[in-house]
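About this split. The held-out portion is used to measure sequence recovery: a designer receives only the structure tokens and must propose an amino acid at every position. Recovery is the fraction of positions where the proposal matches the reference. Here is one held-out target exactly as it appears in the evaluation file.
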């Protein structure tokens, strides 16, 4: 049996969402109001990696983009860091979802991580 070597990656891990700016209570699904996310990104590479974390608020019924938040960052090798961002979610929150991913840069936009969806 031939084993395939493991390829390191940028890994989005365990995103946590809270309703409101001062809430400490995690929510398990999207709700109307201001939703704050705390997202862990792990750099499994043995070298520094530059990337952009993308949070996209999408309308499910027509797959349109309602809002985007982008954070550019460089992570040291084999480290984890937590990033925060948020959106004001419309009253008809059932028709929205948040997608989280990392790109290799905001100009090239190549996805370099897993994608997480919260709705």
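Reference sequence for scoring:
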């Amino acid at each position: 049996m031939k084993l395939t070597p493991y390829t390191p990656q940028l890994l989005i891990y365990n995103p946590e969402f809270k309703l409101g700016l001062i809430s400490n209570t995690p929510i398990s699904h999207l709700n109307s109001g201001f939703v704050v996310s705390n997202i862990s990104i792990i750099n499994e590479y043995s070298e520094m990696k530059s990337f952009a974390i993308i949070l996209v608020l999408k309308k499910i019924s027509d797959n349109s983009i309602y809002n985007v938040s982008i954070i550019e960052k460089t992570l040291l090798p084999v480290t984890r860091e937590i990033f925060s961002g948020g959106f004001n979610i419309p009253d008809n929150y059932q028709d929205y979802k948040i997608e989280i991913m990392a790109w290799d840069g905001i100009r090239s936009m190549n996805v370099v991580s897993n994608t997480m969806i919260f709705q």
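Annotator remark: The chain is about 0% helix and 55% strand.
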